[in-house]
Amino acid sequence: MESDLESTIEQRKDVLRRVKEGLIVRLNLYQIVNQIDDDTPLFGSGLKLDSVDATELLVMLDEEFGIQVSESEDPFYLRSVNSLASFIISRQTKTNKN
Amino acid sequence: MTHLASIHRYRKAVMSERNGITLPASFNNEASAHGALRESILLADYSHFGLLEVSGEDRFDFLDRVVAGDLAYIREEQALYSLILDNEGYIITDIYVLCDDERYLLLSEWFTGKGLADLLGHYMKSGESVILKTRNRENGVLLVEGPYSWELMAEIFGIDVIGLPYMEFMPVEGGLLFRGGKHGEFSYKLIMEVAVLADVWKQLQEHGERYDIEVSGLDFQIAARLENPCWNPMILGKVTRCPIELQMQWAVRYDKDEFVGRDALKRRLEEGVKRRVVGFCCEESIVDVRVGSRVFHGDRIIGEVAVVGYSAFRQAVIGQAIIDNSYAYAGLGGYTIESEDEKVAISTVPVPFIGNFSFLVNPSEHSYVDPSRPKSFLDQVERQPAGEEAEI
């Protein structure tokens, strides 16, 4: 595997692991990390989060990743574990560029 | 044959068979039906859904042992979406379980009520007090789905519909109204007595006119499920039936004491799977990529396409491929798929592929038909006087 691809995958795996561990601890989920798939929906039938959990998610983004989310942010980053990871990586990339 | 066959024939439906039932596949309006699903309301005959009533003193213990999800999670008038697995932990079907007074009602789009009864019958222990009764003779199912389906439902069945949470149901005259769907939009299933089914259908059409409702056959699911993937034995199920490879473990409750397939599935999870299904988006909009086309990283074959098609809402060719585990992550470029002429560049992406419009609609604030209210958060922001921020 090329080193560029390998490092991109490692970065994503790291963010996914931290997101899943954060969700498990902060929201008292019964699962362990490898029982939560990357494309698991956060709301609805997936992890069954509610609006209170959504607030905790925002706290997690701030405390764990140093990301503050404004009200005008497109809400679709909250669809799944994977979309949340993509959002975090995109923010981290922007911060690193600046 | 669906109980609404004569109505569908009058509308010149193209009929086909699903789950042993003949019902509309198409009304030759796929594009407008898809637009209605995503922007207003779609109405479809879902009478292919198998309906099975499970009652008797031991109904909870029995069903909880068969279904992979946690039945204890739901109370009366609540529902659970889950899977029924075989002994090896592979998916036989997905299923909705509705918890009603003194009974559970099972809904499956892949089994008839009788087929479900036969399947569940295999798991019944001798002496267990469980009664299985199919409901397909007495009931039909209608689908009302789209960002404003809640508004039409409230107009016909009363304001309580607006407060009905996801995966809950309520009694209505002549049946049940269940909120739950697979395509990322507000979605309701009306499980109605056969005697009132045609009247309800006509009522939905009449009231639905001002919501630009579109009547659709089941073919709308092709585009809907490309954008919002879900379990389909005829598509992804042909590639794998493993909930881990399909990224559907969320429909399984591992910490239950027992359910069919649990030990085999846990074993497979501990050993680790070799491949997983991942979403992809082609970088060109006109490409000849097919199911079964190989996915490459450089010259190395890393997987194959499981489903692919053009998404009008994403304006791109999208799909899902089953890819070697070490490459199976979203957010990656550098992979290609073989096509007729050359290799096509793709990016792997999270699923679902689209931001569903229903996410931007709040029943307590928005309306499709009332001009004094904004249609959505987007409209709300536009209507806001300069300098003020809309509360989202």
TrEMBL record, chain A:
<dbReference type="InterPro" id="IPR009081">
    <property type="entry name" value="PP-bd_ACP"/>
</dbReference>
<feature type="domain" description="Carrier">
    <location>
        <begin position="7"/>
        <end position="92"/>
    </location>
</feature>
<dbReference type="InterPro" id="IPR036736">
    <property type="entry name" value="ACP-like_sf"/>
</dbReference>
<protein>
    <submittedName>
        <fullName>Phosphopantetheine-binding protein</fullName>
    </submittedName>
</protein>
<dbReference type="Pfam" id="PF00550">
    <property type="entry name" value="PP-binding"/>
</dbReference>
UniProtKB/TrEMBL annotation, chain B:
<dbReference type="InterPro" id="IPR028896">
    <property type="entry name" value="GcvT/YgfZ/DmdA"/>
</dbReference>
<feature type="domain" description="Aminomethyltransferase C-terminal">
    <location>
        <begin position="275"/>
        <end position="353"/>
    </location>
</feature>
<protein>
    <submittedName>
        <fullName>Aminomethyltransferase family protein</fullName>
    </submittedName>
</protein>
<dbReference type="InterPro" id="IPR013977">
    <property type="entry name" value="GcvT_C"/>
</dbReference>
<feature type="region of interest" description="Disordered">
    <location>
        <begin position="371"/>
        <end position="392"/>
    </location>
</feature>
<dbReference type="Pfam" id="PF01571">
    <property type="entry name" value="GCV_T"/>
</dbReference>
<dbReference type="InterPro" id="IPR029043">
    <property type="entry name" value="GcvT/YgfZ_C"/>
</dbReference>
<feature type="domain" description="GCVT N-terminal">
    <location>
        <begin position="6"/>
        <end position="256"/>
    </location>
</feature>
<dbReference type="InterPro" id="IPR027266">
    <property type="entry name" value="TrmE/GcvT-like"/>
</dbReference>
<dbReference type="Pfam" id="PF08669">
    <property type="entry name" value="GCV_T_C"/>
</dbReference>
<dbReference type="InterPro" id="IPR006222">
    <property type="entry name" value="GCVT_N"/>
</dbReference>
